[in-house]
Amino acid sequence: MSEQPLTILAIGGHVGDMELTAGGVLSSHSLKGDRIVTLALTAGERGVPAGQDMGEYRKQKVAEAAAFAELLGGESIVFDIPDGELANSEEIRLRVCDVIRKVRPNVIITHFKNSMHKDHMTTHLIVNDARFYAGLASFERELPAHFASRLYYAENWEDAVDYKPYIYIDFDQEAYELWVKAVSQHWFVTGSKSFPYLEYYKHLARVRGIEARKTYAETFMIPEESMRVLKSEL
Questions:
Q1: Would the pTM of this model clear 0.85, i.e. be above it?
Q2: Among 77, 120, 179, 203, which residue carries the largest CB count within 10 Å?
Q3: How many CB atoms lie within 10 A of CB 195?
Q4: What structural domains does the chain harbor?
Q5: Please, what is the average pLDDT of the chain?
């Protein structure tokens, strides 16, 4: 367990994005006593199953986000922005800024910069600026400033262009099983016919674990300006 429990805020474009891509690490940290909060900027309701009402599916997605967070002893937040209509706007940046100041995370996880999905790319831009706004004391909002010192970009098959694993974070069998149970609360993870989400991410966790000489792992990128290795000699 960390000397001081961490607070981790995972911010996705849709419900399920962070739960799939960073869920093993989130589960591992929850078992260590750290606080887990997920924020979805949209519910992702346009992936509605055939024959189901989209409004009802949105309610289902919000409930699925809550079920995942509950199994990790955490919290979930879902904005009321329609799926596919996430705007790269100051209004949304400020809403995310306010969440960061309220949650006060040590760590933020979000999408990598490139994606086949515009909501993912927009989320990346929003979160990077919102993190800056949240940490700027002269940027007056209702809550006091807070800077999340660590920012990670999760590995996602939809965000694969130019993504190169930079950091490997491993987790054990207990965390893996908790993650699989929690992420299976999401219908699209187990029921989608368009992509075998659960199978893919379970195998990816094992492959990344093998690469790290561990059992399971997830990989992350970090901001380019943070990519430095300091040594005094070889």
A1: yes
A2: 179
A3: 12
A4: 7-226 (3.40.50.10320)
A5: 95
